[in-house]
Amino acid sequence: MKMRYVGQIGVYHAGIGGIEQRGDFGWRLDMVDGAKQFQIALWCPKYGVCLQCVHSGPSGDVYNKRFWHWDGNIEQPTITPSIGCDTRCGQHMTITNGEIFGTLAAAAAPKVTP
Ligand SMILES: [Zn+2]
């Protein structure tokens, strides 16, 4: 399904004006040691929002924190590899060009017939 960007970096709360429903996403931005650190905020059926660290480098652990590779696109991101929600809600998704594929999200996606 097509994702919906909540519209502003720093807006990533659950609920009205933020992450309201499946497919919604936002960005949290922190300065860490003088460098920008982005986290993508994804809708989570268990806690409302799930945050995951992203950067332009390869995916993997940096100082015990898991990072996903991000293409830098704010409104239509591509994140690799796939993301399993960190709250263990069962959600597991792939995000490509602002579209989300995977468990839970798949239910709302149109079925493609070959
Ligand atoms: Zn979750």
Descriptive key words:
single chain, 114 residues, mainly beta, 4% helix, binds zinc ion
Secondary-structure-derived class: mainly beta
Helix content: under 10%
How many strands appear in the DSSP assignment? 9
- How many helix segments? 1
Order of helices and strands: EEEEEEEEEH
| Arithmetic mean pLDDT | 89
Shape: globular
Rounded to the nearest angstrom, the distance between the terminal CA atoms is 18 Å
Q: How would a textbook summarize the main sheet?
A: 9 strands, mixed
Count of separate structural domains: 1
Strand content: over 45%
Q: Which consecutive residue ranges, at least 5 long each, have pLDDT under 50?
A: 105-110
Radius of gyration: 14 Å
Bound molecules: zinc ion
Describe how the helices and strands are arranged.
Elements (H helix, E strand, L loop, with lengths): L3 E6 L14 E9 L2 E10 L3 E8 L4 E3 L2 E6 L8 E6 L7 E5 L2 E4 L2 H4 L6
Parallel strand pairs: 1-2, 4-6
Antiparallel strand pairs: 2-3, 3-4, 5-6, 6-7, 7-8, 8-9
Bound molecules: zinc ion.
In short:
Helix content is 4%, strand content 50%. The chain is mainly β.
Explain how this protein is built.
With 114 residues, the protein is mainly beta. It has one domain. Strands 1, 2, 3, 4, 5, 6, 7, 8 and 9 form a 9-stranded mixed beta sheet that branches. A hairpin with a 2-residue loop joins strand 2 and strand 3. It starts with a strand and ends in a 6-residue tail after the last helix. It binds zinc ion (ZN). Zinc ion binds next to loops.
